[in-house]
Hints:
Blueprint: H1 6-14, E1 20-25, H2 30-41, E2 45-51, H3 53-63, E3 72-74, H4 78-90, E4 96-99, H5 104-112, E5 125-131, E6 140-142, H6 152-168, E7 175-179, H7 190-203, E8 211-216, H8 218-222, H9 224-230, E9 242-244, H10 248-260, E10 265-271, E11 277-278, H11 286-299
Parallel strand pairs: 1-2, 1-4, 2-3, 4-11, 6-9, 7-8, 7-9
Antiparallel strand pairs: 5-10, 10-11
Helix pairs in contact: 1-11, 2-11, 4-5
Amino acid sequence: MVYKSFGELIEKVKGYSSIKRMAIAAAGERHTLEAAFHARKEGVARPVLVGDEAEIRRIMKEMGEEVPDEDIYPAADNKEAAELAVSLVREGKADFLMKGYLDTGVILKAVVNKEQGLGKGGVMSHFTMFDVPGYHKILVPVDGGMVTYPTLEQKKAIIENTVDTLIAMGYDCPKVGVLACVEKVNSKMPETVEAAELARMNRDGEIKNCIVEGPISYDCAVDGEIAKLKGYESRIAGDVDVLVAPNIHAGNIMGKMLTCTCKAKMAGFVVGAKCPVVLTSRGSSAEEKFLSIVVSAAASN
């Protein structure tokens, strides 16, 4: 199966037998709490709030919302909030983690802590989903937020992280395109060489549970007619699920073009840890935060 829209995914998560618990580090921020209570209202996730208790209660009062006292964990500062939220997940008191109003570096430091964090010893990468007008299903461009200049082995790990997440969400065999500006291998373009090697790994069973093709250009990946005109034979052209960017700049630019120019809706979180980590920008809208909670709840099922 695949998801055609966030609406389909929301309905799927609402149908789960149990509601996931979400630990929010530095939860005292209005957009974060709006997203959290929206998720609770929709039956997607139960918020567990960590941070400045007085500020959290002040905002909740303004919103006319409340949570049980046992779901508020006071923290003296953002560092303590991040560490406490991580510990709640580690102790089984929450199913996944969300960044509230604090710097990304603060929460990631707590997540990757070797003794008290949530790392699994491998590569952590940024997973994003986009509901794009004009495309027939959700697109998953990676990685525009974590791994800056991935090596071949890191690209393999990014694909595996992404595919494992999609499988957990109900996908059967995700279609993965490793992007370049051309469709042929050129020794002077290392991105094309690595794309071909990743496709080879998939054919040989080193990358499982998906179809990987590359190098493939963006237009061929999302438009089968263009692929035919170019003579590009493909099992995924026009029906790709995952777009693997050559580096963080390409991934980030692609994502911002989809949201700012194409008016796509976005959700994202970090994968490769022991649980999903919702890591939206402090300036993200309540809707983006809510959708990121939805996909994280789906991935932690």
